[in-house]
Amino acid sequence: MSRTKVVRIPVLGRRAVNAYLLLGRHPVIVDAGTPGSGRRITEQVTAHGVDPQDVRLVVVTHGHIDHFGSAAELRRLTGAPIAAHAADLGPYRTGRVREPYLPTGPMGRLMARNPKLHEQAEPFEPDLVVRGATGLADFGVDARIIPTPGHTAGSIAVLTDNGDLVAGDLIANSFMGLIEGRPANPPFHDDPLANLASLRAMLDLKPTRLHVGHGTPLDWSRADRWATAEQRRLARRAARGKLRVRAQEPDGELAGADE
User: Fold this and answer.
1) What are phi and psi of 120, to 5 degrees?
2) Distance CA 32, CA 185 (A)
3) Helix residue ranges per DSSP H, the chain
4) Cα–Cα distance between 199 and 224 in angstroms, integer?
């Protein structure tokens, strides 16, 4: 087994939105940033000594525009196929996120007004449609994709065999990464309790570090303490009927939000 190195690729600001480069026998990119970010990502891939044409796979963690916005562009620039989960095919095929966004707090309510979050990205059809745990050894890294539904129905994470978790939006740093190393919710969740259950399942695997879509890496113990406090907070909100959840239809597509 070769060790897989995880390299953060800032897409927006210093750490507000991240993609990741996995370096193993061959390189893999995780997440595609906002629309128009493809060149910025490939330039940083090159700066790390990797020819973008050597990238074997682009993994998209979920159907929010700051994570899939440049997926089609990256496929053209690298020639690599795209892997994404079946339950978020709607956003990928239309280039539009499911709306309305369901904020997790004041930051989300503020960001939901940002017109850029409501733009249309270039649609794409995934080359590898993920439905369950999927090994990535054939693409050159000792890692596996693991479904982590909750943030969106089709959210996934990538866990390397040496314990690094590229977590997408399972968890974030406070204020979109402005407060480094402090665990927090990302601005939106389709189903907060389901997301927390997915986070708990990943924490049970004892990852060495959690590499997040917004901010800098989190250590396991701090994320675990935060998850315990978040469980209590969500239980109180649920008891008061204050949790908003996007309804899921039997075919895996999501319907409108429950108010």
Assistant:
1) -100, 130
2) 20
3) 38-47, 65-68, 71-78, 89-94, 106-111, 174-177, 192-203, 220-239
4) 9
Question: Which residues contact residue 14 at a Cβ distance below 8 angstroms, ignoring those fewer than 6 apart?
Answer: 177
pTM of the complete model = 0.94
- How many other C-beta atoms are found inside a 10 Å radius of the C-beta of residue 138? 10
First to last CA, the chain: 48
- Output the CA angle 178-184-190, nearest 5 degrees: 115
Decide if 90 contacts 253 (C-beta within 8 A). yes
Count of Cβ atoms closer than 10 Å to residue 10 Cβ: 16
Nearest Cα to 230, choosing from 180, 161, 184, 174?
184
DSSP single-letter state for residue 216: S
Q: What is the pLDDT of residues 101-149, one digit of tens each?
A: 999 999 899 999 999 999 999 999 999 999 999 999 999 999 999 999 9
